[in-house]
């Protein structure tokens, strides 16, 4: 009596098909993962731009001085309004109704740090009732920028003197 031996396994064509599918999937996934830092960095730069713009518009709307405070220690940005007694209080975020504070320690900004804060050698920026930027009350801003950095990329946010125009580089 002859016995039939049956071999089990995959054919060469089946193995090649799996390798091709894996190569295509890797070609799609790897670049998308590499762009994650750039996406987060760009989002953080846009959010900071929006915070600065909000401080400008609120200074016009209220006719009061607004201060944007940058803390490299806490990695936070806080928007404050000057009270009648010349002290400052944190304004509320228009959507969350919480104190307006950005924190680069949050998971949504993972891997992003705020560095090189330079508003005429200070760590805050003032907007008067006409949204004109100052480095101190009555002292025009001469130069203002802050840098957001990731592991390999960075974005510089600059506030122009006199006009207050904000640019992201």
CATH-defined topology: minor pseudopilin epsh fold
Strand content: 25-35%
Give a quick account of the main beta sheet: strands, pairing sense, barrel closure: 7 strands, antiparallel
Ranges with pLDDT <50 over ≥5 residues? none
CATH class: Alpha Beta
CATH superfamily: minor pseudopilin epsh domain
Mean pLDDT: 88
Rg to the nearest angstrom?
A: 26 Å
CATH architecture tag: 3-Layer(bab) Sandwich
Helices, by number, come to 2
Oligomer class: single chain
Q: How many distinct domains? A: 1
The gist of it:
The protein is built from two helices and eleven strands.
Description:
Helices cover 30% and strands 30% of the residues. The protein is an alpha+beta fold. The protein has a single domain, classed as minor pseudopilin epsh domain (minor pseudopilin epsh fold). Strands 1, 2, 3, 4, 6, 7 and 8 form a seven-stranded antiparallel β-sheet that branches. The radius of gyration is 26 Å and the shape is elongated. The relative contact order is 0.15. The mean pLDDT is 88.
